[in-house]
Amino acid sequence: MAGSQILNNNWVKVNNITFDLLEGSWKIKKGYGEKEFTPSIGEGGKINANYVEKSSTKFSAGEFQIYNTPDNQTKFDTVMQQMKSNNGFGTISAYSTGFAYPPIVKAIITNDPEWTGGTGGITISFAGEAVVE
Fold first, then answer.
1. Which of 9, 31, 80, 104 has the fewest CB atoms below 10 angstroms from its CB?
2. Is residue 38 part of a domain?
3. Does any domain span residue 3?
């Protein structure tokens, strides 16, 4: 398919601190919001399509996994201190080779990651202002 590329070699910057990710471990919701479909019966029994936008779902969110290394633990602690001094907010930007998602501003880390032994990844969850209108 011309013009298409697989988004691989992924990394995330949180407040300009770079984290390399476990391959295929990240996902981002851009913030278009959810819609509820409610059909109604119109004139002559015709079905009318209606929907309601759920404004409470119009935010960006996602998660990614990083390796459990001393360096990543130190970087994560630094990010959390930065966010604490900025009323809990930061900026999260996701990248793949040749592609960058719009930065998610006023972002917060929404989980308290569990740092475990072994080769698995540490999941970091986040949410922030929608990157789309």
1. 9
2. no
3. no
